[in-house]
Write a structure and sequence with these properties.
alpha+beta, two-stranded antiparallel ribbon, 2 helices, 2 strands, 23% helix, 15% strand, elongated
Length: 79
């Protein structure tokens, strides 16, 4: 059976704090943070949990979409 990620390639799959993450193992600082700590920008996620209200719409836009915010889309504050 062929592996999901080529071990000689630049991608690495790791079970991180927010679930499985596929990242570029040569990337700094995001890839390095995922590799060493299993998370990236966790404090931002906790801040969003405190700020986001049920009526708000949050848009994650930028170069690092989903890199550190995979848990944000799971903040279900619909009352």
């Amino acid at each position: 059976m062929k592996p999901l990620v080529d071990p000689a390639g630049f991608n690495e799959l790791k079970l991180c704090r927010s679930g499985p993450m596929l990242y570029n193992k040569n990337d700094f600082p995001i890839g390095l943070s995922l590799q060493k700590y299993g998370e990236f920008s966790w404090s931002e996620i906790e801040l969003f949990r405190q700020i986001v209200e049920p009526w708000m719409v949050v848009i994650d836009a930028g170069a690092n979409i989903k890199a550190g915010h995979s848990k944000v889309d799971k903040i279900e504050r619909f009352d």
